[in-house]
Amino acid sequence: MRLKPTFLLFLLAFSIIGCSKNDSTNETENTKNLIGNKYAHLLFETREECEAAQESYMINCAQGLEIISDTEVRIFLTDILYNSNFYVKNNMLVVESTPDTYEFSEDLIFEIMDNGDLKLGEDNWIKYEEDFFE
């Protein structure tokens, strides 16, 4: 009879440890799947609208994010390109702010969508390979 409670405690401890490791494994796998991806938040619906706006103003057509490695991203929100660190937790991609990222003084927290795109607040960031207007 003494083995039964001991076995149940062992099984419970093993289950808890197994679940914690599984969450970490999923986050590591999600991070690996992101490496090399490029994302854009389009500021215009079409290339033509962007080009027309550029005739009047010096403006970017989109904001961009590129996952460089398992810890580093390249991001531009206006015309300044930043390299920053990131991590994935609870299906969120967190781009860490630094004293040098004056365009964002707090971490940027992107939701990783089921289709592979990202969402920052209400803004969709689409995954692209060649040209984000295609």
Verbal overview:
31% of the residues lie in helices and 32% in strands. With 134 residues, it is of the alpha+beta class. It has one domain. The chain has an eight-stranded antiparallel beta barrel. The protein is globular and about 50 Å long.
Summarize the structure.
This protein is of the alpha+beta class and 134 residues long. It is 31% helix and 32% strand. The longest helix is centred in the N-terminal third of the chain and has 32 residues.
For the structure shown, list the relevant keywords.
alpha+beta; 134 residues; 2 helices; 31% helix
List the helices and strands and how they pair.
Blueprint: H1 3-34, E1 38-42, H2 47-56, E2 62-67, E3 72-76, E4 81-89, E5 92-95, E6 108-112, E7 118-120, E8 123-128
Antiparallel strand pairs: 1-2, 1-8, 2-3, 3-4, 4-5, 5-6, 6-7, 7-8
Protein name: Lipoprotein
Signal peptide: 1-20
Organism: Christiangramia salexigens
- Uncertain residue ranges: 7-21
Can you write the helix and strand succession as a string? HEHEEEEEEE
Spatial ordering of strands, largest sheet: 1-2-3-4-5-6-7-8
Structural class: alpha+beta
The quaternary organization reads as single chain
Shape from CA axes? globular
**Average pLDDT level:** 83
